[in-house]
């Protein structure tokens, strides 16, 4: 009985939402499909998620929350650039693709080395003695890692057109999809940051922080190497 009630409630809520959607220049069902696909893709951990987890566990929620804004900005830049034509240019220009690829790869390796080195700081004492990175730097790191990933630009070029109606105005559809994806990406990063911060309070031991910093730094370096080896299809 209760299940039937909630099922009916969700159907009614969806119907109300669909009515409210009328007037928006994009098919509601297509938008729902985009939301579902985006959530599935965002749940797959990548360099951005690893960066969020690393900052949340090693430096706490105050610093980690800055990554959320950085992730949102990075995704906004990458997605907007892709839909504005930069993605097509990257695919067409081997030189531009190589430049973006190497800048992103080198930056990932740099962050990985920095995180790996911070392991020695974490081993000196408890969480309160760990040296903190400013929120503004963390914001910049997250934005750069997210935006400077050539896979992101190429991914958006391949992913977004599936949800575009070519016989309707493109700008409103692009705006809706960009805002939707950026919002979901920010929520995803926030969820990882808050969960990692809760985990942090349970592992308040310097040797755990040292281990996590080394593993996280090594993983970022590996992702940087993988990004450098990435080739256009």
Automatic annotation (TrEMBL):
Report the superkingdom from the record.
Bacteria
UniProt KW Magnesium keyword: no
Its membrane topology: Multi-pass membrane protein
Compartments reported by the entry: Cell membrane
Entry GO CC = plasma membrane
A single Gene Ontology MF term assigned here is: amino acid transmembrane transporter activity
Spell out where the chain crosses the membrane: 31-56, 63-84, 90-113, 138-164, 170-195, 207-230
Q: Does the keyword DNA-binding apply?
A: no
Q: Which Pfam families match?
A: LysE (PF01810)
Keywords from UniProt, A to Z, are: Cell membrane, Membrane, Transmembrane, Transmembrane helix
The protein's name is Homoserine/homoserine lactone efflux protein
Write down the species: Pacificibacter marinus
């Amino acid at each position: 009985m209760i299940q039937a009630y909630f099922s009916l409630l969700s159907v009614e809520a969806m119907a109300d939402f669909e009515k409210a959607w009328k007037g928006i220049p994009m098919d509601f069902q297509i938008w729902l499909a985009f939301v579902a696909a985006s959530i599935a893709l965002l749940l797959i951990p990548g360099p951005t998620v690893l960066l969020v987890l690393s900052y949340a566990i090693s430096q706490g929620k105050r610093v980690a929350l800055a990554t959320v804004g950085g992730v949102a900005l990075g995704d906004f830049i990458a997605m907007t650039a892709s839909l504005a034509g930069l993605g097509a240019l990257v695919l067409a220009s081997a030189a531009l693709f190589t430049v973006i690829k190497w800048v992103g790869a080198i930056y990932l390796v740099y962050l990985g080395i920095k995180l790996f080195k911070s392991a020695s700081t974490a081993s000196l004492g408890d969480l309160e003695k760990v040296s903190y990175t400013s929120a503004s730097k963390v914001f910049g790191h997250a934005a750069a890692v997210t935006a400077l990933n050539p896979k992101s630009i190429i991914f958006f070029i391949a992913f977004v057109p599936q949800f575009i109606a070519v016989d309707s105005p493109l700008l409103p559809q692009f705006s809706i999809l960009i805002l939707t994806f950026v919002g979901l990406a920010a929520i995803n990063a926030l969820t990882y940051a808050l969960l990692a911060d809760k985990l942090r309070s349970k592992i308040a031991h310097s040797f755990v922080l040292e281990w996590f910093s080394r593993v996280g730094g090594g993983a970022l370096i590996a992702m940087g190497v993988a990004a450098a080896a990435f080739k256009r299809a």
